[in-house]
Prior knowledge:
Layout: E1 9-13, E2 26-30, H1 32-35, E3 43-45, E4 48-49, H2 77-85, H3 90-94, H4 124-129, E5 159-160, H5 165-168, E6 172-179, E7 182-191, E8 202-205, E9 220-226, H6 235-238, H7 243-246, E10 252-259, H8 261-266, E11 267-268, E12 271-272, E13 280-286, H9 295-299, E14 318-322, E15 335-339, E16 342-344, E17 353-357, E18 368-372, E19 378-383, E20 386-388, E21 393-396, H10 401-413
Antiparallel strand pairs: 1-2, 3-20, 4-7, 5-15, 6-7, 6-9, 7-8, 8-13, 9-10, 10-13, 11-12, 14-15, 14-18, 16-17, 17-21, 18-19
Amino acid sequence: MKTKFQGEFDMRPIRPSSAERTGRGTRRKVSPALAAFGLTAALALTATACGPGDSTADSKPSASATASATGQLQIPSDVLDQLKKHGIDLDKWKNGAWRNWDRATWLREAKDYVNPIIQGLWDPDRMRKADKPPKESVPHDISGDKGITDPVPTPVRAAAVKAPYHQNLPELGKLFFDSPEGSMVCSATVVQDPAHPGKSNMVWTAGHCVHAGAKGGWYRNIAFVPSYNNAALPTAQLQKATRQQIAPYGVYWADWAQTSQQWIEGGGPTGGQGAPYDFAVLHVTPEKGSNGKSLEETVGGALPVDFNAPAVPKISSMAANGFPAAPPYDGQKLFQCKDKPGRLSLAASLPTMYRIGCTMTGGSSGGGWIATGSDGRASLVSNTSIGPVTAGWLAGPRLGKEAKGVYDSVSTKYAGR
């Protein structure tokens, strides 16, 4: 593998079998505009997927909302207005209309996000099956660079996080969502909310885990499960695991999601020009009511986000965390890679990304990168975005003013609630 990388890619998806579809495996060629730079490349976003979801929704689901003290969910008027605005019938939606991915009905603009809760949709079986990896891979040649790119890091073997996960990384969890290719998974992290100190309902992940980018729209049925499979049960035992074993702290639906406009306009299956802006912030609500507790109170922690992390040479180590699902992993356990970060430039005009050696694969996308921040505290400083199919390294965006704008916007939206 060559040491430098730049560019925007023209992708053509590989067609997996009908039983297994993937949001990760793609085959593509370098766009003519970048041929002049002598580039060949093939990166993959590190989300992974299985076949289209076929679970039947609960007979009496309800829409996403804040929870009352009695635990009963109520549909807020703004959600109903958004549904009506786009011609979405809630009863039809919860009974399967969400599976219609026709371009005309696939909402894509930042203001158009809606995600009605379908209670019971993410049952243990459906969560477990949302981890099938792609059957085919893609080339991995990388060359050319006009910005600052450090040599390709030596692969760092991902280490299994000690169970129970809640005792070691209580902020980490797994993200589930549905796409035109099927049920998919990413990783995510509970982060602090400036508007609600100690009572955050905000979660950080990758932009491509919530929105398909330039050629798509918002994904659906987005739900976060903190400390997924907290006891690290073997896959065989998960076949009969209860919801409490798989989701001990509950299932939280994203009642609002926000990503960068750069990702919406320029993101693609291998990152594209949106990769340096591949981050997203969710506001979540519990599927079955909160009993008066926030997500942060429920899990016992939330990470601060550092939008002014030290320069790469001054960072001795970063820890990337996630639930990798492509071989040799199965998506059921939490892993971590620690490495000194280097720099990866996709184009001279784009922000340089962090890069570390790591063997984690698809499914680890969106997982938080933790390092000592500018204030000396352990902070979230990035998230997994892209990596080669050979799984030797991962890259994540540097969090600057654009990321802070997304974060502050979500916090402000719920400041008075």
